[in-house]
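Deviation from plan, reported transparently: D-mannonic acid complex.
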Amino acid sequence: MLSLRTLDRVPATSRPLIRPGDVPAGIVHLGLGAFHRAHQAVYTEQAIARAGGDWGIVAVAPRNLDVVRRLTAQDNLFSVTTLSGAGARTQVVGAFAGVRHAAGDPAAIVALLADPAIRVVTLTVTEKAYQLDPVTGRLRPDEAVAADLRGDRPPMTVPGLLLRGLAARAVADAGPLALVSCDNLPSNGRRLHGLVGEALAYAKAPDDVADWVHANVTFPGTMVDRIVPAATDGTIATARSALGVTDLAAIAGEPYSQWVIEDAFPGGRPAWERAGAVLTGDAGPWERLKLRGLNGVHSAIAYLGALAGHDTIAEALVGIPGLPAVLRRLVVEDVATSFDPPAGVSVIEYGESVLERFANPAIRHRTIQVAMDGSQKLPQRVLHTMADRRAAGGRPFWSALVIAAWMRFVQGRSDSGAALPLDDPLADAIRAALAGTGGNPAAVVDALLDLTEVFPPELAADAEVREMITSWLDTLDKHGVTATLADAAS
Ligand code: CS2
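Because the crystal trials were delayed, the predicted structure below was used instead.
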């Protein structure tokens, strides 16, 4: 088993750049999924190794106890395997100064957030954990968040933990802090700022607490990128053969990695630029590039691929002959014309590089994994593209296909009739909307466009948009994905 004690059995080239425990904590990270371990943890370890600083990460799993147990048993060590067509390379990472389980000890997390040694808090908790309306960005607390914000109990949700932690920090006057969303939300820094403001108001926090937060906490926006599927037994087996010891917290991802961060850190930060991150004044253009040009295309492949019966993103790209051509038209005709990219970046070339990354056969990213939580993802990935094209008088034809594919997907049957899972926080509302439509395409489109948490009112009221989606859905229903795309691509 991987641990500090067994590190000398690991090949020297795979050993961590720093040892957990050698570097004091300066960062708290919320969200212990695969992505953080393969992305920010790697950048931070390299930054510390190259430029120093007390920036060890205390990694907090809000709910998942299993990952906490696995990491704790391994002295907080884990490995990242980089998978390319050319082979695999496995590296142990030592960036974690500690690992905690929030649900098991919320008070400890609140105390950490109020600890003056902690000057940066990062989050990868997925879109839905913010509990923001995907269209308006306003807080829509469910019962659990509302209870946390009222202070009825120890906090169990991400907004609750943040609110209590910031309030405790304000009372202790424990020094300024950067609160950094690393999730694929639109304007993620601004949305997190809005969330904290609304949470303080909802909780009726005293004025001096709210004033302290507004004066001492920044919310830098970020663009994060690396494809890191959920780990499988295969991931653990690959790590074992590279390391010579078992790593039960092993994960694997693609070679590509990018991080663009707005440089607003009042309490300092690791020298992430020494690890390849881009520090900038405005991450907005990068974020739009990535959400629309990568994630939007990813969702397109996920829904079309799952409907056509393909298990992984890479298999769908190969297995549906018309798909690459249709995705190129989505990028060229809809995405590239919908926003101003960062200076010097070609959206079309970016789209090509994304297709190459998605085609990496070593990355077994399941279509079903990318398809989940569509209600939380489609607004920033596809609907913003559509809205911007409509505002400029355009016809976002290919984006309408993606929405139609989602609308067919949420009805729960693939083209061959196999069951498809609806894993989405709005699953009940989606099912209720579909009830009574009888699967009739026009009725389905009308019912789903009425979901105001997903579709902005102007788009839902746009007859041409409605017509395009309905026509695609009708074609998908009649002919299935493979024939529809073969025809569309010709
Ligand atoms: C994916 C992302 O699961 C999904 O929805 O689109 O996780 C994607 O792999 C990452 O954003 C890539 O950086």
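Residues 74 and 478 are 53 Å apart (CA to CA). We consider this an acceptable substitute for the interim report.
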